[in-house]
Write a structure and sequence with these properties.
Layout (H helix, E strand, L loop, with lengths): L15 E6 L2 E12 L10 E7 L8 E7 L2 E13 L2 E8 L1
Antiparallel strand pairs: 1-2, 1-4, 2-3, 3-6, 4-5, 5-6
């Protein structure tokens, strides 16, 4: 898997992904992108927030995200559930 950088997500609000889990896929969209002060991380520091369906809730952990033919691994945490859906956060620091 490749190292994700700030450029992989900058300007991509609304982009759809699939979280591959348990032999299936849960659709999510990039809801927020926030650059963070640099912590010396190669590729820059940033925060992502994804919005998925209310159910199923994807548990905290490293998950494979697919967009077209590109698959990357991201550690994400569910942070809230509203009628709008479930929100997840991933921080690269």
């Amino acid at each position: 898997m490749r190292n994700l950088t700030i450029d992989d997500f900058s300007g991509k609000i609304g982009t759809s992904y699939e979280v591959l889990i348990n032999g299936g896929a849960v659709p999510v969209k990039l809801a927020e992108f926030q650059p963070l002060p640099s912590a010396g991380r190669e590729g820059g520091s940033f925060r992502l927030e994804f919005l998925g369906p209310i159910d199923p809730v994807v548990p905290q952990g490293v998950h494979r995200f697919r967009r077209k033919d590109d698959v990357v691994e991201i550690f994400m945490v569910p942070i809230s559930r509203t009628p709008e859906g479930t929100r997840y956060e991933a921080i690269f620091f």
